[in-house]
Design brief:
The chain is built from 17 helices and 2 strands. It is mainly alpha-helical. It has a two-stranded antiparallel ribbon with strand order 1-2. α10 runs antiparallel to α16. The longest helix is centred in the C-terminal third of the chain and has 32 residues.
Length: 434
C-alpha cells in the first residue's frame, strides 16, 4: 500500500457552481484566524453548511475513505475511547470528563475538510493567509504606536489574551517560514515579496507576545536548511553556523545576571530588549530545571508543572490515569505551589501521557508522523502543485510538534481549529491506493 497525490486535473467531471461552494468558503477561512475566535468558528460552520448543500456524497465519501489521514485520526479516537472505558470517570473529574474526552477528538473536525479535492483554490487560500498575516503585522505595529482602539475586533493585538495572543505569534511565524520557502524556491522575486517577508518576520520577532513563535520559526529555518543540504564540505560548514550560533547564545544567556522579572509582557522595554529578555529567561530556566532548582518568578511555573506532572506520569505510564484526571490530580499534588490553580500542563505530550499513557501519546505521534510522511511524498510527486506544498506541510507539521511541547494546542480550540484549517488547505487531494 502506498500513498499518491492527485491534482485537480485528475477529476473527471466539472464541478457545478453549488458543488464548488466548500472550496470557495475554505479559501477565506485562513483570514478568520487573525481575528476574534468567533469569526473562525463561524467560518467553519459556514464550511460545514456549504458541504451539506454541495451534495455529491458518494464522491466525498470515496475521497475521505482513500485519504491517508483517515486511519491515524480514527486510531487516536479509538485509543482514547478505550482509555475512557478502562478508567471510567476519574475521581474529581466527573464534570470535566466529557469536555476532556471531546478534546481528544479534535482531529475529527479535519475529516470533512479531507473530502475536498486539490485545485487552484489552495493557492488562493495561501494568498489569503499571507494577506491576513500582513494585516495582522500592521495591526501589531499600530498597537505598539498606541493607535489601535481597544475594541473586541482588535483586542488580542492591544493586550495579552493568553492563547489567542500566542496563536497570532505562531501564525506570523508560519507565514514567515512559508513566504521564505517560496522566495527560495523561485528564481525571481519582486522587492514587494521580500518586503512582505521581512515585515512579517520583524513584527513576529519584536512585537508578538510569545516565545513559542520564535522557537517554531527557528526550527522551520533549520528544517529548510537541512532539506537543501548537500553532503560536501561547503554545505556542512554552512550548516554548522546555526549550531555555533546556538552555543554562543546559550553561553551568553547563562552569563547574564538573573533578570528582576521574566514576565516579559509586563515589562516596559523596547521590543528588541524584550526579545533578549525572553531568550535569557528561557535558557536560564532550562538550566535551573535541569539542575533541580526552582525558579522564583511566575513565568517559572512551567518548571513546577513539568516536575509534578512527571511524577504523575511515572505512576501510570502505559494507560494513564484516565480522561480528565490531570487537573484534580495535579491540584492535589501541587498544594502550596504557585502553579496549583493551573488547568493544563501547558504541553499536549504531558497531558496525553498523564491521562492516556504511552498508548495515547503514540496515537498522537502517529498522526504527526503521517503528516510528515505525506510531506515527504508531496516532495516526490510528479505534480508541481503538490511539490510546492511539500515544505509548507513539513513546516506546519513541525510547528504543531514544537507547539505541542509548550502549549496545549489540541486541548484548546483556539489553537486546534486554526492548525486544522491550515492543514486542510495543504492536505486536499492526498489519496491512498492499494
Amino acid at each position: 500500500m502506498h500513498d499518491t497525490i492527485h491534482s485537480a486535473a485528475s477529476t473527471t467531471t466539472p464541478m457545478t457552481a453549488r458543488s464548488d461552494w466548500p472550496e470557495q468558503v475554505a479559501v477565506w477561512l485562513p483570514l478568520t484566524l487573525f481575528f476574534p475566535v468567533a469569526w473562525m468558528y463561524t467560518g467553519v460552520v459556514l464550511f460545514y453548511v456549504s458541504l451539506l448543500i454541495a451534495g455529491n456524497w458518494q464522491q466525498k465519501w470515496q475521497r475521505l475513505r482513500q485519504h491517508p489521514m483517515l486511519i491515524p485520526i480514527l486510531g487516536l479516537s479509538v485509543v482514547t475511547a478505550l482509555v475512557a472505558a478502562l478508567h471510567g470517570k476519574p475521581d474529581g473529574a466527573q464534570q470535566e470528563f466529557w469536555p476532556a474526552f471531546g478534546h481528544y477528538q479534535t482531529y475529527l473536525f479535519l475529516l470533512p475538510f479531507l473530502t475536498l479535492q486539490a485545485g487552484a483554490w489552495q493557492n488562493r487560500a495561501l494568498s489569503v493567509f499571507f494577506g491576513g498575516a500582513t494585516l495582522a503585522a500592521f495591526l501589531f505595529v499600530l498597537s505598539s504606536l498606541h493607535l489601535l482602539p481597544d475594541v473586541t475586533l482588535f483586542r488580542s493585538y492591544v493586550v495579552y489574551l493568553g492563547n489567542k495572543s500566542i496563536l497570532l505569534g505562531m501564525l506570523l511565524a508560519v507565514a514567515s517560514g512559508w513566504l521564505l520557502c517560496g522566495l527560495v524556491a523561485r528564481e525571481k522575486n519582486s522587492a514587494a515579496q521580500w518586503l512582505q517577508f521581512l515585515f512579517i518576520t520583524a513584527v513576529m520577532l519584536l512585537l508578538s507576545k510569545t516565545r513559542t513563535a520564535l522557537v517554531i520559526w527557528v526550527m522551520m529555518l533549520l528544517l529548510m536548511m537541512l532539506s537543501r543540504l548537500r553532503w560536501n564540505w561547503r554545505s556542512l560548514a554552512i550548516a554548522a553556523l546555526p549550531l555555533l550560533a546556538a552555543i554562543g547564545l546559550w553561553q551568553y544567556a547563562l552569563s547574564q545576571p538573573r533578570p528582576p522579572s521574566c514576565v516579559v509582557n509586563a515589562v516596559q522595554a523596547a521590543p528588541w530588549e524584550k526579545v533578549r529578555l525572553r531568550g535569557v529567561c528561557t535558557l536560564q530556566q532550562v538550566r535551573d530545571f535541569s539542575e533541580g532548582r526552582r525558579t522564583g518568578d511566575d513565568d517559572g511555573m512551567r518548571t513546577e508543572l513539568y516536575r509534578v506532572t512527571s511524577g504523575l506520569i511515572a505512576e501510570a505510564p502505559w494507560s494513564g490515569h484516565g480522561i480528565g484526571s490531570w487537573m484534580p490530580l495535579y491540584r492535589e499534588r501541587a498544594q502550596g505551589l504557585s502553579s496549583a490553580t493551573m488547568t493544563t500542563p501547558h504541553s499536549d505530550y504531558l497531558l496525553y501521557l498523564t491521562e492516556t499513557g504511552v498508548l495515547g501519546l503514540l496515537a498522537l505521534l502517529l498522526i504527526y508522523a503521517q503528516q510528515a510522511r505525506l510531506a515527504w511524498q508531496f516532495s516526490r510527486s510528479s505534480a508541481e502543485d503538490q511539490r510546492r506544498l511539500a515544505m509548507p506541510l513539513a513546516m506546519l507539521s513541525l510547528s504543531m510538534v514544537c507547539g505541542a511541547a509548550f502549549n496545549a494546542i489540541l486541548r484548546d480550540g483556539v489553537f486546534a481549529m486554526a492548525f486544522l484549517i491550515l492543514l486542510a488547505v495543504l492536505l486536499a487531494g492526498a489519496r491512498r491506493r492499494v
